Protein 1
Amino acid sequence: MRIDTLSPAEGARTSAKRLGRGIGSGLGKTSGKGHKGQWARSGGGVRPGFEGGQMPLARRIPKRGFNNRFKKVYLIVNLSDLADVPEGTVVDYGFVVSNGLAKMVKNNVGLKVLGDGELKTKLTVKAAKFSQTAKDAIEKAGGTAETVE
């Protein structure tokens, strides 16, 4: 292959419309613009979304919701999910994900432990956040609640 033999794929390049070159071309006289009116004028036409003065669809429909790009989303696990974990286990983000103890959340920033349920086993729990009830329940069972970033 040589650079001087390269050419565009068949049909990739089309020649420009030659407007106003006689009636035989099919694009003579009015050059495909019909007779008079907004679309026949130079620079004529309307902006995208313009509906002839009628209230546009984008403005007729009510505004709804807001997505905060900077919101911190945590992977939530309750104490009831940790009830079956063997005693002495170190429960951290990796453990929770590998054992499927919490529902995965897109773009999460860490693990958050909530106090729903009862914990009777001694565990070392490492998470980004704890609710106060979860922290108290873990320590009451003889375990430790460590905050990790």
Note: The helical segments are 57-60, 93-98, 132-140.
Protein 2
Amino acid sequence: MLQNQLLSQQAEDPWSVNQMDVPWELSAFAPAPMSIDEMVEAYDTSMDLTTIFMFLSVGMGTVLAATAVQIGYITRFNPKKVML
């Protein structure tokens, strides 16, 4: 999708891809304009085992923290006073 979008943008205006306005803060990270092929090669969306484990652990940690907070809140109640 990225490659198709860049190619269609270049077909519409060939100078727009190579002469994009880059803020001066980002000029240290991209000192020279990239070609479309370099952009496509640098664009990586693969997920390895550590990334999957990180997503799983953050998700499970969030669920466990939310559950622990609710259990802690409920256990403070006195059942006799709640029923009266």
Note: The mean pLDDT is 78.
